[in-house]
Specification:
Largest sheet: 3 strands, antiparallel
Shape: flat
Structural class: alpha+beta
Distance between the termini: 47 Å
Helix content: 25-40%
Strand order of the largest sheet: 1-3-2
Number of helices: 3
Mean pLDDT: 94
Order of helices and strands: EHHHEE
Number of strands: 3
Amino acid sequence: MSKPASPRNVGDKEALAVATSVRGSPYKLNLVAGLIRGKKVGDALNILAFSKKSMAVDVRKCLASAVANAENNHNLDVDALIVKEASVGKGLVMKRFATRARGRSARIVKPFSRLRVVVREQEEA
């Protein structure tokens, strides 16, 4: 006996992709995610392809995954998709140390982030 399937946490005309371990701080990732919020998917992919931020590579992968999920799993029209949500959260933090002068040490923090991208099919008006 298995537990029942969990309900979808996005709407009927929406698809979701989550990148759980993006190496970098949530602040830097949110700067890039803010560039694509509310944009059409084609425009968002172009913005990310030509962005100089290194986080744009990971955001682009997650957005491409959301588009593929929309097309293959939910039979949505790829040309009518817009980025409904691009939210960023904190992930785990690796802690390392660096030796310093006079027998002391300093903490090095290597943060990870979570990225959640939701694309929605826009109705033709």
